[in-house]
Amino acid sequence: MQAEKSGNEAVRNSNDGGAIQKNQKLEILRHSLSHIMAEAVTTLFPGTQLAIGPTIENGFYYDFAFPAHTQLKEEDLELISAKMKEIIDSREEFVRVELSREEAGKLFAGQAFKLELIHDLSDQEKITVYEQRDAEGKLRWMDLCRGPHVTNTREINSAAFKLMNIAGAYWRGDETRPMLTRIYGTAWENPKELKSYLSFLDEVEKRDHRRLGKELDLYSIHEEAGAGLIYWHPMGGRMRVAIENFWRSEHYKNGYEILYTPHIGKTWLWETSGHLDFYNANMYSPMDIDHQNYIIKPMNCPFHIMIYKNSGRSYRELPLRWAELGTVYRYERSGVLHGLLRVRGFTQDDAHIFCTPDQMEGEILEVLRFSLQIWKIFGFKEIKAYLATRPKESVGEQERWDAATESLRKAVEKEGISYEVDEGGGAFYGPKIDLKIKDALGREWQMTTIQFDFNEPERFDMNFVDSDGMHKRPYMIHRALLGSLERFFGVLIEHFGGAFPFWIAPEQIAVIPVSSSFDDYAKKVSAELKASEFRVSTELGDSRMNAKIRECQRRKIPYMLIVGEQERETGTVSVRLRDGRQLAAMKTADFIGYARDKLNAKSLEL
Prior knowledge:
Layout: E1 2-5, H1 9-12, H2 18-44, E2 49-50, E3 55-56, E4 59-65, H3 76-89, E5 93-99, H4 101-107, H5 112-120, E6 127-133, E7 139-144, E8 161-170, E9 179-187, H6 191-207, H7 209-215, E10 219-221, E11 230-232, H8 234-253, E12 257-258, E13 264-266, H9 267-273, H10 275-278, E14 287-289, E15 292-296, H11 301-308, E16 320-329, E17 345-355, H12 357-377, E18 383-388, H13 398-414, E19 419-422, E20 432-438, E21 444-453, H14 456-459, E22 464-465, E23 471-472, E24 475-484, H15 485-496, E25 509-513, H16 519-531, E26 536-538, H17 545-554, E27 559-563, H18 565-570, E28 572-577, E29 582-587, H19 588-600
Parallel strand pairs: 12-16, 18-19, 25-26, 25-27
Antiparallel strand pairs: 1-5, 2-4, 3-4, 4-9, 5-6, 6-7, 8-9, 10-11, 13-15, 14-15, 16-17, 17-24, 18-20, 20-21, 21-24, 22-23, 27-28, 28-29
């Protein structure tokens, strides 16, 4: 057994810059707090089995198996937190100790999860524990760990951490293994940073698409009818139609044709494409139809290939740009389903481009330009590209990989997009670009993918007749621009906090009479607006005007037109914005012109 003082020498000796140093220091601090939490839990709840306690983004967690008679409750977090502060204040020292396999087995006898971890270590790996000793050097607690940790708990600010919540987690993420109790915490260098992070979480909660989706009556999920499947309500349907119509219009403008393909196909399609070999876990089981196996589609590409192969193709036809809002179905474990962001059935805004080698570079540049244009219209301006190159296990000629990768690189550089190279991160069938956007809260979301495919053209024996009369393989490019409509809607709801731009708002204008005496004029104004194809709500009924205004603000309707005696006499409307601002009164026709300009410009401002 060999002991040595712990510490964050890696941080102190870092020359990689302040941001890296700060991140390393925070990771060490958080990892140390996970051990301190485990000490507190085992002190308060004797007989608790320990699993693992890693750091995660913005914090840490630890998984425990509590004794059968113990049921941890949210209010217990305060008790555990108080005990952690006692441990921090006692200035325990972290000491790294190397053990033999036999010593480690004896030390953790009775701790089944730790013994399993020890058993799984290779003979070449060092087995280390980190002891926590009091000021007099007395051992207080220890845990199996690679480290590193702080030298002493005095390096941790006891007012800069918070235990957040309790969750369930299967041991090693395996649903066949025991369910454990996971305690999450967050930790920062000082109380100011903690307060800032908690304020950020409050804003995230306010913008949660599941909460706003219910409040704005956009969609619902019915577990009793099928988990991970989205039911679009009329308000969500209005938004979806507006976005889909825009999507189709822009694709036609950019030289695409729109396809519609079936929801199921014979199994041989997926055998030929290779999906049954490498994607089977996410596909639903075959169904017997007329004594033949069919599979509900997890992606659209084999169907687009069937259309390509429907007739002989010449170089004169290429490039072919085919797009589809195709609903696909993929199996996701119930534990990872999350509102609109992780579902089992979703509509992919899919496109496939088939082109010649000479056209490839121009097509990539064009699809990237198109993607950036669409994201900026939706209000996302912070965009970063990630270029993923050839992995070790892959298919296709090296020459094609090199040419495709270079075309992706040139495109991002020509568009002036910040990018990182993910060496070896491409799919086995081709290199790709992923575009990640930042939302209003600074969170990064991976959305657009532009992906070469050297696999399916070979498997389906795709070809075209070139100018020299020879049959050649086309380049095939997959492109999902928004990704999926469901996930995109989730991001969109949270980005705007439900206060959508006028052009996609489910309710664009509310007409509110001052009293029931002006209902007829309100109906007349509404009819004129509807004739101009605006989405209009006429707020009739017995409620007072101010109550109607508050209700329309809750529904985040962009424009509220107040009408009373003066407006009826002059043929005008008083215009109130959802944020409380007011515009000058104007003729109904003038407001229609004003609103149409906002609509046509896809304006993000009211």
